[in-house]
Specification:
With about 70 residues, the chain is an alpha/beta fold. The protein contains two helices and five strands, in the order E-E-H-E-E-E-H.
Length: about 70
Amino acid sequence: LIIEKPNGKIYAIEIKSSVSPSFTHLRGLKSFQEICPKAILCCACLTSKSYKIEDITIYPWRELFNIVLR
């Protein structure tokens, strides 16, 4: 999912049904970053708290959409 906001921010989001997706599950985001380096990389999943894997932020799905839609 790619969202470009009116302020120019671009969010690249992968949605996973896992509680703790691994880096290999998120390689599509890294591939997208090669063509759009300014994209903010995010994953929405069933985790209970946010954390990072390299430059990808993993969010509880409800929290992520509140952040992106602000």
